[in-house]
Structures are given as C-alpha cells and as structure tokens.
Amino acid sequence: MPPLRVASSLTAQLNNLSLGPSRPTSFQHFEPSVLSHTFSTSRPTLNWLAPKGGESRKSRKGRPRVPTGGSTRGTTVVWGDYGLRMRDHDRRISAAQLKNGEDVIRKRLRGLKFRMYMRICANIGVYTSGNESRMGKGKGSFDHWASRVAVSKIIFELKGDVHEQIVRDAFRLAANKLPGLYEFVKKGDPPVMGITKVGNGVTMEDLKRPRKSLPPPNLEDTASRLPAST
C-alpha cells in the first residue's frame, strides 16, 4: 500500500504548532456585593384564603369558638375606618365565598385610594366523600378551605380616602355574596357581646352577672288560687 500523501500547507501548519505551556489566564476575584440579596422591612404577604403549612391532621366540622361568659373580642373596628360585621349567628364560610366578597369590594372601589384588612382567615379544611358511600370508609378527601366565623365578628375593614356612602355600597354588595346577614360599622362603635351591643346603659359586667334567683314558691298562695275540689 503506497504511503499517504500530505499536502505541504497542512505540514506547515503542523510544524507551527507549539506544545509549550499555554498563556496563563487572569481570573478576576469576584466579591459579592452588599446589595446582591434583596432585603425588605415589610412582612411577606401571606395568603389569607389558605394556611401556610397546611394541616397535620384532618379538621373536624366543629363550631366557632364562643368563650364562656361572653367576649367582645373581634367585634370592633381596629385598623380601618369602616367594617363589615356579621349579625345573625355563627357559621362556616368557604374560601371561595370570602374571595368573592373581596373581589366585589375591590371592583366597586376601583381607582380609589384605600387599604383593606381581612380579620379572618380560611384555615379549616373541609373534607367530603362521594355520594351514596357506605359508612365507615373514612372522613373523605380534601375539598376546600373554610373559616369558622363567630357571631358579631368583623370580616372586612377598610381605610382610605373614600366617601362613607361608597364604602357602604361596596360592603352591601359584598354582603350579598356572603352567607348570612351583615351590618355596616364604623370606628368607635361599641363592641358586641353575643348579639347584645354594649352601651346605652348596658355594660359587660351586667351581661356577665349571673341570673337573679327567683324567690321560693309560696304554697299557700298557690293553693288559694287553685279551684276547690269536691
């Protein structure tokens, strides 16, 4: 077999190649900047329609917490100027219903400067099972998040450069989307214990006072009022 013929130009290029050490490359030392990590003093925005860590165990249906002896906690406007308060009885409201109420308020007040506060959160899991399922097959699978709202509880608060009548109309539209009956309250209104408003001579001490004991029955008076038997 005859030897391979190599072109003269390729031979010249191979002779010019050098196998010596390559030229060292200078690497620039990278120093992280102080502002490379974002930092903020404001608290992170949490989702009020679902808990952050989920549930470790399935929640029971339960009932809203009602302290023994009554309580006025959560029945007054704290951060805003106006509020929406439930006034009929306690119930469980789903996260979808709360979201609809929030969206209606924001849509009605679109273009205005305001800030809205949510006084409750949907942190209770609701579990359902299929139709016509036999008993004893477990609690069921997760369906949605809900919130247990006690009676006279503030749900929404609003603060901003908005006229009172516009806020009333926005809260009216939101109440139509939520189950139950609601009322419009303002900052400074008296608290409510149960369904009784504290004020106008009614104090918390009077509401927490035990019932008055009735006098013992008088048997002689009772016997005198009864018809005589023959």
UniProtKB/TrEMBL annotation:
SUPFAM superfamilies: Ribosomal protein L16p/L10e
Stretches for region Disordered: 45-73, 206-230
Protein name (database record): 39S ribosomal protein L16, mitochondrial
PROSITE patterns: RIBOSOMAL_L16_2
Tagged with keyword Repressor: no
Family stated for the protein in its record: Belongs to the universal ribosomal protein uL16 family.
Entries under InterPro entries matching the protein: Ribosomal_uL16, Ribosomal_uL16_bact-type, Ribosomal_uL16_CS, Ribosomal_uL16_dom, Ribosomal_uL16_sf
Record key words, sorted: Ribonucleoprotein, Ribosomal protein
Source organism per UniProt: Cryomyces antarcticus
Signal peptide: none
GO annotation, cellular component aspect: ribosome
Record Pfam families: Ribosomal_L16
NCBIfam families named among the record's database cross-references: rplP_bact
The keyword NAD is annotated on this UniProt entry: no
